[in-house]
Amino acid sequence: KINWSDAIFGYAMGDQNQDLSFSEVDDTGNIPKCVVVGDSFDWEETVRPNIPWSETVIYETHVKGSTYLRRDLPENTRGTYAGLSSDNMINYLLDLGITAVEIMPIQHRIDNKMLVENGLNNYWGYNTIGFFAPDIRFSSDEAPGRQVVEFKKMVKKLHENRIEVIMDVVYNHTAEGNQLGPTVSFRGLDNPAYYRLNEENPRYYNDFTGTGNSLDVSHPQVLQLIMDSLRYWVSIMHVDGFRFDLAATLARQFYAVDRLSAFFDVIHQDPVVSEVKLIAEPWDVGPGGYQVGN
């Protein structure tokens, strides 16, 4: 959880120089913290369904939205990983004839400051900051780290019913916004490495995503982060595939979209990630962006 204090911006709020000013305020108590969770889990004899593409029927859904109003579920499991894998929900999915659920973003995200100030939240979740962490807001158990176990239980139960799990993933940008922040992770670690900066004025970001920033996937450090994350979700969490949000941004080597980019090259050569289902959203808002049929 993030506390929207002035401390997390890294500059003196209200100063006429904005982000060019300097802040000495400690932000330790205001930014999200990591939780170390063991990988052990009893998958028993559960195996991946491995449904052929030709037989795949995908059901796109939101973890909360799929069961939040279902009165046939216990109240504490509605809108959770447990709710999505409940017997009633699975029977509903099987009756539809689907073979895979594509779940909208569940990696840990941040609610924008403006939303929080207006009593709202980022429902859809396309504002990621933690690429290895399931979103705790979809867990019926709010104890730190328990969302990992509940997510695995969901995958296991769906696999037992021959339903695959495909994740909608957002690796094209992060929740750190533009030059005005906040600064909660990557910007503070190595801003020029993680983000695409304007060559003429590196104070500003090349925003190919419409969110304020774009991750620089052409940088080896960023590419490794993404690949480590993908392998984690396949190897440890047992998901069956990914849908890449604004995949064109991931394919930008410099400015132009390159379908032979390092990202696509590594994806197809990786012995783990290349074996699961991969879906690309083929556009972004950047110059010369690739669009299907255009």
TrEMBL record:
User: What are the Glycosyl hydrolase family 13 catalytic domain coordinates in residue numbering?
Assistant: 77-176
> What biological-process terms (Gene Ontology) are attached?
carbohydrate metabolic process
Question: What is the native source organism of this protein?
Answer: mine drainage metagenome
By what name is this protein known? Glycogen debranching enzyme GlgX
Q: InterPro entries given for it?
A: GH (IPR017853), GH13_cat_dom (IPR006047)
